[in-house]
Design goal:
- The protein has 3 domains: about 180 residues, Serine Threonine Protein Phosphatase 5, Tetratricopeptide repeat; about 70 residues, no CATH class; about 140 residues, no CATH class.
- The chain is built from 19 helices and no strands.
- Helix 14 runs antiparallel to helix 19 and helix 18 runs antiparallel to helix 19.
Length: about 425
């Protein structure tokens, strides 16, 4: 398996052909894929069922043939009955992680844990999957369960060390509360013969890339807010170009994996709903996140109108009205997406949680109406526009600060239950 993936060994003896897994492993390590495929023949797969398909899928994944590998995984899962052993689902999760299908791997990891809740292998797989998804508290909790179940298994100690090391900040330092536990896990893993290269989780670029993209978009929005017409056009063109690049990257990923963006999205959606159905903390945290997204469309529409008026360039009534309607439509569209993504039952809980959505809807309507009122007057002073612009900014900053505090408290309370 690649060094940056879960260190689980998927080559335990199969029900039949007991030594074939080790031989296939050796052949793949030497790059002799044709001979590996000869061992994992159709007859071999037929004798071993799901496990045979999954061994074939692993070989295909290492051969960089993701479409065929995912097809073999799908066949294996289709053949797996309700009484299937956890080993099959663990191996399926390992293969899906190798294919960079973390959300699909989470689905089978949960099935593995359900089939053997007292086993350490499903917990190690869950830890690796959660870590890849950026859900570090869940990753640490799963790794701790694995260590509590099998303290003498090196892979359990490695999973704990990797999940704790993934919590290091931008400076590369592990949080103080995790340092002693991390040192103990590393020491135990090395004593049990673990490879030192497996003890540190690779630093993911998603968070840093997301921060960079947010700063880049913020710079363009600042140009739009403070510049003239040409700055507005240039900033808008750059933002449009970034969306084109994102679409191109998604399309390239579809060609590489053979899985369409729509199918991948449905898989993520199904996993999200399944987890929230059994974890009340997750939908509460999502409710806070949904409410925090509502001020942004209004800030980018009527907030822009107010800012331009503040700087002595008020928009005509028709343009202000169009901006207000666009912002309100975007807010309503975001709310309409909640039941589509989470389902009707969860959506009702999310929308009504704490009255957050109602407060933001009232603020959006008030600020949009105020913008249109000032634009309709035609003689509004710069001070009035300044007050409206500051109100937009205060609403956004206050809403985001409130969401940050609430989400942090909910996350902390959820960690206590893991």
């Amino acid at each position: 398996m690649p060094d940056d993936d879960a260190p689980l060994d998927p080559f335990d003896p199969l029900p039949d052909d007991a030594g074939s897994g080790e031989r296939v492993h050796a052949l793949v390590g030497q790059g002799r894929f044709a001979e590996a495929h000869a061992l994992v023949s159709d007859a071999f797969v037929e004798r071993n069922g799901s496990a045979g398909y999954l061994l074939r899928a692993w070989v295909l994944a290492q051969e960089r043939r993701p479409v065929q590998a995912r097809e073999a995984v799908d066949w294996a899962l289709a053949l797996a009955g309700p009484a299937e052993t956890a080993d099959v689902f663990v191996l399926a999760g390992v293969v899906l992680l190798a294919l960079d299908e973390a959300h699909a791997a989470l689905t089978v990891a949960l099935r593995a844990y359900g089939a053997d809740p007292d086993g350490w292998e499903p917990s190690v797989l869950l830890s690796d999957v959660y870590r890849r998804l950026g859900r570090l508290p869940d990753a640490v909790a799963a790794a701790r369960r694995a260590v509590a179940t099998a303290p003498r298994e090196s892979e359990a100690q490695v999973a704990l060390a990797r999940s704790l090391s993934a919590s290091r900040g931008l400076t590369g330092r592990i949080p103080r509360r995790h340092r002693a536990e991390h040192a103990t896990a590393v020491r135990s893993a090395l004593e049990l013969g673990a490879d030192p290269r497996h003890l540190t989780a690779p630093r993911g670029g998603m968070v840093i890339g997301g921060v960079g993209l947010a700063l880049f978009w913020g710079t363009q929005l600042y140009r739009i807010e403070t510049g003239g017409a040409w700055q507005l056009i240039a900033g808008g063109a750059v933002l449009a170009l970034t969306f084109v690049i994102i679409a191109f990257v998604v399309r390239a990923g579809t060609r590489r994996s053979g899985i369409t963006a729509r199918a991948r999205l449905r898989g993520i959606q199904a996993t999200t709903r399944t987890e929230m159905a059994v974890d009340d903390w997750l939908w509460r945290i999502s409710a806070v996140h949904v409410s925090a997204s509502l001020p942004l469309p209004v800030l980018l529409t009527t907030g822009l109108v107010a800012d331009r008026g503040w700087h002595g360039h008020p928009w005509p009534l028709w343009a202000a009205a169009l901006a207000a309607l666009t912002g309100l439509a975007a807010v309503l569209l975001a709310l309409a997406a909640v039941p589509w993504w989470y389902g009707a039952a969860l959506a009702r809980r999310i929308v009504h949680y704490g009255g957050l959505v109602r407060v933001h809807l009232a603020a959006a309507a008030a600020l949009s109406g105020g913008t249109m009122a000032l634009a309709a007057r035609g003689d509004a002073t710069r001070g009035q526009w300044a007050g409206l612009a500051v109100a937009h900014l205060a609403w956004v900053v206050g809403g985001w600060a409130t969401a940050l505090v609430m989400a942090g408290r909910l996350q902390a309370r959820r960690r206590q239950t893991l």
